[in-house]
Amino acid sequence: MNLKKAIKILNIRKLNSLEQLRTTYLNRAHEAHPDKNPEKDTTEDFRKVMEAYEFCLGHIDDLFKHYNIKEQPSAEEISKKTRVENLDDIFADIFGFSQSKTTIGYLEPQIIYLTLHELMTGVLKKQKMMAYRKCPDCRGIGAKSGHIARICTYCFGQGVIKKKKTEKNPRGCPRCFGRGRIVTDKCARCQGFGRLKQYHQQKFYIPVGLKPNEQFTIKSQDLITNKQTEICIEPRLYRDPIFQIDNYDLVCQYHVDFHSHNKDESLKLKTPIEEVPFVIGKKVKKGDVIRIQGKGLYKSNSKKDRGDLFINICSKKHSLFKRLWGGLFGKA
Question: Does the global pTM surpass 0.85?
Answer without folding.
Answer: no
